[in-house]
Specification:
Elements lengths: L18 E6 L4 E6 L31 E4 L6 H20 L5 H32 L8 E2 L1 H5 L17 E7 L2 E7 L4 E5 L6 H4 L7 H11 L1 E2 L8 E12 L5 E5 L10 E6 L3 E5 L11 E4 L10 H22 L7 H14 L12
Parallel strand pairs: 4-5
Antiparallel strand pairs: 1-2, 3-6, 5-9, 6-7, 7-8, 9-10, 9-13, 11-12
Length: 355
């Protein structure tokens, strides 16, 4: 059958237990619409203002958070360094004199070392890692846009996310926000969700509770995420009881009383957030960073260093081979013999009588 939408407007009923009855057609088809309780916000300051774009609560000047750059994941820098590396290799090829095998090895080693360290490895650890980190078409992988679009439902976290559900949330970011937790003597890192600004500023694409829950449960961690450019959050939905005795479905780091879980209230204006720890109470990883530079990224530069050393050795031998040398003639030795014969001449013989 076809899917269609119906927009109805009612005068609000006064009681929470009241409902509306809608009669459709002559066959006495009825649809009961329960009256939902008033919306109570859990995170202040998230109201949408018509005509204004989304601004992260962390970016507001009064929030007390500072912005920090993260690892870049673009291809512009590696491509630029590729051109620089090619220029250096070309300079060695055209400017270095013919030193035989030393020139060949210098060109090869310098080229491999520089291109590997400055182009190939950064592209693999950056754009390639981001593109292959998760399969966004996987039904068990969600984005902030997906969660923000979910509606509030009884007995679920949001949408169809019930207790026992396990999934991953993939969050790319270009910057992070940081503030110090004086009580715990540590740092908390906030995600602004700037890449999802269009969804978070559109009431047709996101729900009030969805926009609120991405801030409340998925926007803060105590893990330093600046070395990466995206993160994967491993989520397990758990049924728990809050401070009012109400049963709720929440992520594993939002269970009150579990060791390592923290609900951090910055101030009354900013409100509180659940802090995502690196590992949960069972030791399973909650946060995985994507786009982190490899610790061995610059090791291939040792090949480039060896190439420059070989170039120096080749230049030394080439210069030494071209240095002029003194050639001793055989005639020089003949002249010495003549000189000795001169001393044997009778003119230089002295008798005792002559003295």
């Amino acid at each position: 059958g076809e899917v269609f939408g119906i927009r109805l407007q009612f005068t609000k009923s006064s009681g929470l237990t009241d409902s509306y009855t809608l009669y459709l057609g002559r066959d006495n088809f009825e649809m009961a619409v329960p009256v939902l309780p008033p919306y109570e916000e859990e995170v202040p300051g998230l109201e949408l203002e018509e005509g204004k774009d989304y601004v992260s609560p962390y970016a507001v000047g009064t929030s007390g958070f500072t912005t920090h750059d993260v690892a870049t994941s673009g291809v512009g820098g590696p491509i630029l360094m590729l051109l620089v590396s090619i220029g250096i290799v070309a300079g060695i090829m055209f400017l270095m004199p013919p030193t035989g095998i030393f020139k060949v090895l210098s060109v090869v080693l310098v080229g491999i070392g520089m291109i590997a360290s400055f182009t190939i490895i950064p592209i693999v650890s950056g754009p390639v890692a981001l593109a292959t980190a998760v399969d966004e078409s996987d039904p068990n992988v969600y984005t902030i846009d997906d969660i923000a679009a979910m509606q509030e439902r009884d007995g679920t976290f949001l949408g169809e996310l019930t207790a026992g559900t396990e999934f991953q949330v993939y969050i790319p970011y270009d910057m992070v926000y940081r503030a110090r937790d004086l009580e715990m003597n540590g740092w908390h890192y906030g995600l602004g969700f700037e890449s999802s600004a269009e969804t978070l500023s559109d009431p047709a694409e996101s729900s009030s509770r969805g926009r609120e829950y991405v801030q409340l449960y998925f926007s803060m961690t105590d893990v330093d995420i600046t070395p990466g450019s995206a993160m994967i959050i491993n989520v397990k939905m758990i049924n728990t009881t809050d401070s009012t005795g109400e049963s709720r479905v929440v992520p594993q780091w939002a269970v009150i009383g579990d060791e390592g879980n923290q609900f951090w209230v910055k101030d009354d204006t900013f409100g509180g957030r659940w802090v995502i720890p690196e590992k949960d109470i069972n030791g399973d990883t909650n946060v995985e960073l994507v786009g982190v530079k490899y610790t061995w990224q610059y090791y291939p530069l040792l090949l480039a260093l060896l190439g420059f050393i070989l170039a120096g050795v080749g230049l030394f031998q080439w210069t030494r081979a071209r240095r002029p040398t003194r050639v001793t003639s055989v005639d020089d030795f003949d002249d010495d013999d003549d000189y000795e014969e001169d001393f044997d001449d009778d003119d230089f013989d002295f008798d005792d009588d002559d003295l």
